[in-house]
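ok so I'm stuck.
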Amino acid sequence: MTNTMTDGATAEAAGPMKPRFSLRDTAPEIYQAMRALDAAVEGSGLEPSLIELVKIRASQLNGCAYCIDMHTRDARAGGESEQRVYALTAWHETPFFTPRERAALELTEAATLLPANGVSDELYERTARHFSEGDLVKLIWAIVVINAWNRVAGAARLVPGTYVRPAG
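replied:
not stuck anymore, here's the structure
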């Protein structure tokens, strides 16, 4: 099931916080293009649980409360354990993640925080040991897409708690 990125514009749950604008209504053609890119990542063949971990971790690093709320809900609905969701901020110090997940999280952090010299060859090669070339490229796209959503959500001031999971 593909996640649906709502635009966080539900005022009822917002209280004093209000979004600046509706992503869907203000620029619908761009919103639909982003949704299509997100759906392509979701349907890429990468494990849904891995994609959600990447989305949560990038959102934590970017401080995107709306996306953290959305993706922790989606991860739990997809069967992710509370323990792993809570431990994600300190994944380096926990035994809860597989080597493949750890490699993805390390690449997520590097690509999200992108130092001046980019992702190092050493990190890329370390990550490539856990992913085929195609899956590694898909992982990079997943990281890029969530970082884009984080930036849009932050600029629009989407309101945490307004996300509604699609039925099904």
